[in-house]
Amino acid sequence: MIDSNIKRDRDTTFKEPLFKSPFYHFFASRETEGHWYNWNGYKSPLILSDEELEYFSIRSTCSVFDISPLNKYRIVGPEAEDFLNKLTVRNVAKQDVSTVKYTLWCDQEGFVIDDGTLFRFSDNDFRLCSQERHLPWLLDTSYGFDVKIIDESKDICGISLQGPTSASILRLLGLKGIDSLKPFHLLQTKINNIPLMISRTGFTGDLGYEIFIQNGLANKIIEKVWNAGTRHGLTAIGYNALNMARIEAGFIVANVDFISSDHAIRPNRCRRPDDLGLGWLVDMDKGFFNGKKAIVNSKLENKIAFRICALEIDGKEPVEGSIIYYNKKDEVGTVTSAVWSPMAKKSIALAQLKLDPSKSMVKNLWVEIYALKELQYYKLMKKVSLVKPPFIRLARRSACPPLDY
After folding, report:
1. Per-residue model confidence (pLDDT) at position 273
2. Domain of 330: which CATH number?
3. Could you tell me the pTM of the whole model?
4. pLDDT at 2
5. Long-range interactions of 197-204: CB distance < 8 A, separation 24+
6. pLDDT at 1
7. Are 238 and 323 part of one and the same domain?
């Protein structure tokens, strides 16, 4: 016989197959288009009202985006730093308290499992945020360390405020320390006695902040933030607008711009940090970490591999998923993410390319596009230029203190 509680939970799961974040009803009440998608098992918005208006709120005023579906792992204990030094490629001993670092972790072959952000609250207290679920890998890697790993994913929720007026909104909330909060630093504070953690981080390449709180306090916080933002153009947004901004910033996404090693079916789909243009994250001077030997050997062998590159493309036609050719005939890669950038006024893209380093090859790249005109597809070959990301640079992103827009 099936236990009544198990049966009830099972029936609920079938009726509502996706979780709803503590902010779900707030965002759902502001949607007019109703485009939703599955982000890490949560029902999350792609578009709430208008994709372009949502994008321009990021660049012109302020946007609010629900980041609750992120995986959040609390790592505490006397050997938390040593464990994280084994897990990740950066030297955690160099990370100061109350800061945030972007990092990677690899398997034993040096292939990237995922990327994420590491928050350091104290000497022995951290939080690791990631897109994918990695609790089994963290637990396996922690064997032999005096450390405790707690999955906070369903207990802690968060919102991201991104845009030039984001600091002004936080000032209206009476948050002390906003003017002195530097990029990639965090602050544990309160709003009307509501405890929260705020970091100067984001996924847009713009001035922005992320706020993390306990689930039960979500409604109180979002109401205060929304009311403070009414005169500063605060707009609720979905993923499509955020995605446009992150491409402009040159940020990559696992299983979009590269396949993580635990998702790859074919070994040649796996990528090491250098392949992603993220070799600068790897601290080769620190002690052992997962994949170190393989990464060292790969550097010594200097193999030609697919690399993530930033591209500018002639024309305005959509290019995502298109094939890239050398000399219009030799296939050398694929576009993984692309958008027409309203800020750069160009067609921009991220792509995986396998190139000979010779300049002649780099200067003779073309993308094959099939454009729909009058119900018929036409093949177009458009010139491709390699550039150094980001595609746009905004001084306000790093200004301290931020201007009061």
Report:
1. 95
2. 2.40.30.110
3. 0.93
4. 47
5. 197/119, 198/170, 199/100, 199/119, 201/100, 201/117, 202/160, 202/162, 203/160, 203/162, 203/242, 203/245, 203/246, 203/249, 203/251, 204/58, 204/162, 204/163, 204/242, 204/245, 204/246, 204/249
6. 40
7. no
